[in-house]
Structure formats: structure tokens, C-alpha cells
Amino acid sequence: MRRTVFNEDHEAFRETIRAFIAAEVVPVYDEWFAAGQAPRDFYLKLGELGVFGIEVDEEYGGAGIDSHKYEAVIYEETARAGVSFGGSGVHTLLGLPYIKMLATDEQKKRWLPKFATGEEMWALAMTEPGTGSDVAGMKTTAKLSEDGTHYVLNGSKTFITGGVHADRVIVCARTAAPREDDRRFGISLFAVDTKSEGYSVGRKLDKLGLKVSDTAELAFVDVKVPVGDLMGEENKGFGYLGTNLASERWGIAFGAYAQAAAAVRFAKEYVQDRTVFGKTVASFQNTKFELAACQAEVDAAQAVADRALEALDAGELTAAEAASAKLFCTEVAHRVIDRCLQLHGGYGFMNEYPIARLYADNRVNRIYGGTSEVMKSIIAKSMGL
């Protein structure tokens, strides 16, 4: 399908990433899958390759490119190979936008050079046990000390992607009680050093899918956070979170489209090789019709994902547009991957086949970053309903 979203630079980057995946990831991916996470030194390799520094300003060691298109290439290439880069996606998609938007010059000098090299991995800790999508209902607190030098952080978080390997985590916490007319007031963001006393990583969660992405529970017991690690203004954190939700939801949408495209590729290759009743599975009309229908859905999802990417790069992606892209692409991926697994027969249920892992990995796309039901609510509100 003809596309205009990528140029020669993006395609050159694609070749670099594809070669890197073939050399550094594919040969050891089964080991990562069994271990339940990518090794920490892998992130240093990504840093050395320049992946983490693409959108970091040149003065801090990055390339200074203000675009998400290189991230999009990575989504496509990891899906194509049936692998992932572990929990590193949150480092760039979730961590970097908050640093660029909120950090002072002094904070950027401290944080960004090691961010770009992978020496300091970042994660975002928003969700809490029992609150789910209700961010305003969080219970974690950060109270300013009497001498005003630090905050004292207490509480817990769950479902934190990248939480096991993270060196610094953006923690959302209450610095003031909610107002009667605004329960979102009183939330602040902190860049917490994971080596701090009282900070602990609980269980590495055993998930249905995304087995190579480390996801953890975090706990804070009287953790001292220097006032210099407050991000942005006190009590305005909820607004900051809302600002970056559009880019997060674009990432999920684009990743889902890429997974659907990969599923069609895996199924096509399988049915061309697999023989039943003396004929290839690909030769049956039902197979052709199923794959044709899946390809049509992937083409539509690609157009939606690309349009959202262009809008995001232009700074014009609205909350409703991001919600619509996420809803559509994740629902398409759900249908397409399920049908492609069916074409594998019994082998589609075996984890040694990438389609099985893809099926499990894809399921969370309709949950995290806001459930499909939340996306529908956002879209309906934008329609005046």
C-alpha cells in the first residue's frame, strides 16, 4: 500500500533497526521470554544505537529530531520480527515527553544525557491498586518536610511497565487534598530515584502477554524526594498527565496496527508452507478470503495510524482523535490476529510460534492507556453526546 508518512531517512533507520533485531534480539529472544524480561544491558545497546536519543536535544547528547516517526518504525520492525524491546518503550514514549515539557534547564542537564545513553531508564507510575483508570482517586501522598528541602512519599503503584529495571520513575502523588469542585486538584509529579531509601520493587507481575516487558508493583515508605525532583508545578499534575495521553494512545494504536500487519505476514507464510489433504492451506478459497479480509482491515488501520502520526508530529492530535485511533486500531488488531491464529490451526496455540505470543501480547491494547469503553466515552463527548 502506498504511503507518504516515511522518507528516505526513516527507511535507512528501518534497515538499521532490522539488522540490529536480527543480530541482537532474535537469537536470544527465547531466553528473554523464559526469563520474563530483557536484560538490563540490552538497554545500553539501544542507547549506543541512538534509539533513546532521537528526540533528545543535541545539547544533551541526542539528535534533536522532533518527530515520532522513528518510534513508529521501531513498532513496525519489532512486530514484523515477532519480538519486543522489553520495557524500553515507556522510556521514550512516556518518560521523555514529561521531561521535555516540565523539566527545568538544571533538571534536563542532570537527566537527559543518561536518558539518551540508556544509563538511566525511566518509567511512569500512575496506576494504583483499586483505582485503575480513576487517576484522581489515587492515595499515594507526598508531604513537604518542615524544613522545605524534600517531600516524604508514601503509597504504592501497580502495573508499572519497566518498573523492574527503572532507575528513575515519574511518580504521581497527592500533595494536597482534592477540592470539592475539582477532585483532580492536588496531584503532583516527581522524578523519583529508585535507589532511594524506602523505595522498593515488589512482585514482577506474571502477565498473560508482554512477557518480555518487565511490569512491577512499587512501594514507597517514607521515601525522601528532593524538592529539586518535583516536575512542573505542585498540584497541577493531573493536567500534565492529560497533555501526554494523546501521544501514549497514538503509540498503542500504531503498535496495534503493526501487530495486525505482522499477524497477516505470519499467517501468509504459514499457510503457504503447511500442507493438508495434499494441498497447501493457502490454496483453499477460505484461506484466501480470510487473509484478504484481514489485509483490507490492516490497510484501513494503517491509514488511521498514519493520519494520527502526522497529526501528532504537527502538534494537532486531539484527545478525541487519539481515542478514535486507539479504539479502531486495537479492535482491528484483535479481530485480525484472532483470525490469523485460526489459520495456524493447533500450532497457533503454541508459544514457539510468533502468532501465539502476538495473540497474548495484543490483548492488553484494549485495556491500558484507557480501556476501549473509556475511548468511546471520549469520542461520544466530542460528538456532543
Brief sketch in words of this structure:
49% of the residues lie in helices and 15% in strands. With 385 residues, the protein is an alpha+beta fold. The longest helix has 37 residues.
Describe the structure.
By secondary structure, the chain is an alpha+beta fold. It is built from 11 helices and 10 strands. It has helices at residues 8-25, 29-35, 40-49, 69-81, 88-102, 105-117, 237-273, 285-313, 319-343, 354-362, 372-382, and strands at 122-125, 141-144, 150-161, 168-174, 187-193, 199-204, 215-226, 230-231, 275-276, 279-280. The chain has a 4-stranded mixed β-sheet, with helices on one face. It has a 4-stranded antiparallel β-sheet with strand order 2-3-7-6, with no helix packed on it. Strands 9-10 form a two-stranded antiparallel ribbon. Helix 5 (88-102) packs antiparallel against helix 7 (237-273), helix 7 runs antiparallel to helix 10 (354-362) and helix 9 packs antiparallel against helix 11 (372-382). The chain is globular and about 80 Å long. The mean pLDDT is 95.
Describe the strand arrangement of the main beta sheet, using strand numbers.
Answer: 1-4-5-8
Give the N-terminus to C-terminus distance in angstroms: 36 Å
Low-confidence stretches: none
Helix content: 40-55%
